[in-house]
Amino acid sequence: MVRFVTNLAERARRTRPGFLVVPQNGEQLLAEPGYLAAIDAVAKEDLLYGDEADNRRNPIDTVSRGMRWLSPAVNRGLPVLVVEYLADAALVDSVRADIQGRGFVPYFGVRALDRLVLPEDLIVPPPPAVPATTVSEAQPPASSAAGSARPPAKAGQAEPRHKQPRRSASDRPATAKAAAP
To answer: What are the percentages of helix, strand and coil residues in the chain, rounded to 5?
Structure first.
């Protein structure tokens, strides 16, 4: 794998000067001779959360092991990009501070990796509560779903996060910015 990455980096940079090589995971390779010289940064998924289950903090030994594997890149001054998959706003804020405190660059996305998540898109409010119904009480929706691209979500269930339509820039909430002095 080291030879593959170094050959790829050499060829890509000959063809396109400035080409960046940023492997994701596989941080054990950072200890291999020549690998660090071939890459420009390293990305690590689930450094702090999600190794055992989504939104669950990794055990201390898992985080420590990941930090040890990343240390050759840190010592060489390479950027370390950390990808975490979290949905709780309070958790995202504290984990972002933790990652940045380690000198790394955080990114929070969806595990499906089917779209780029912008910071303002990350937190989705929970769906409104729907009273429980029994099968005999359930009524078909007033409007027919015929012709719909996908079947409607069942009562009480939100559409899966990764299947929500992308918002255009005009749909995103405006953010207030302080005026420059």
So the answer is: 35, 10, 55
